[in-house]
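Service request form, structural biology core

Requester: graduate student, group of Dr. S.
Request type: structure prediction, single chain
Budget code: on file
Notes: please return the result as structure tokens.

Sequence provided:
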Amino acid sequence: MKITVKQEKLNEALSKVRSAVPAKSSLPILSSILITAEDGLLKLTSTDLRMTIEQELDECEIEEEGRVTLRAHLFSNLLSNLPKGDVIIKSMSETSVVVKSGRTEVKYVTMPPDEFPPVMFVDDVEPIVISESLLLDMFRKVAFAVCTEESRYALTGVLFEINGGNLTVVATDGKRMSLRRERECVPVKRNVRITIPERTVKELMSQMDGTGDIKVFDGESRVSFVFNKTRLTSSLIEGTFPNYEVVIPRDYSKHVIIKAEEWKSVLRRAEAMKFMSVKVLVQKGRMDIEVQNPEVGEFSDTVEVEYEGDEVKTGFNIEYLVDIVDHITSDKLVMSMKDGGSPCVIKPLTPEAEGDERYINIIMPVKL
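Core staff response, request fulfilled:
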């Protein structure tokens, strides 16, 4: 193989695939990037066997087609320190590759490209085409609620569900749940229900730029995403994601309307007390917030609210509240609950409805 490609283009492509290179692996080949030149395209591929990322480059000159591997860490360090301009990569043998740029020449000892695991992309189903900006927004709205306990493996990802053209994504750790739904946004006839690992969702959020469309190819054990000349394939979470619909309370009668930014500021100040729980007292027209940390001291503050009902005393994990408010973009939000010991539903307040059903957060109260 012999190719010539611009340093800045190659460096950008390499940065997109490096995240799938494992820090440690029992298979030495996984520490390498596979570079393939064929059919007028240059492809960079990396994998840890759970997630595979392939990046295409069409702005290159291919003199000789072929495949080589280069150790990701070493090649990245070299490439990021090369000046802008042409980079020449030439294979001398199955285990030797030369990289040239200007007067710089590096000869690498490499591993045979045939040892690189075969790429198992999903492409045998009709793709689900979604607006990239929409999917990015939906993932951002729920990803923070993913469970981080490996013992609850079925909850360590984001549920991706399509039913009747409606798209729903959900995340929960058993103490809170976040749901984002968009109706009639997916023109596919089949229904889909898969759980995407948290790491994959975070990688997608970091790489999507919110322009154009993204194609989703769902399989029985894997899923592939194609966007911006990137193809990312991931294994899926095994196990059954819980029925989120039965978790959403429907019998609440108390609704508290709060200015989102004002409440966020108060919660941020309360969070500085370094204590998990916050006491909340809701009365007509006001909400009192208290934090008592025996090792630090006491905090109290009040925010004005729109509320006319009976007094409600409750408590929450303050980090969970901050996470929710950080992801609500409306000027106001509405908290709904049955009583102080029941789950609380938090939604954006939209002009057309008391609560926006497209984005729902549920948080369990804590004992004070």
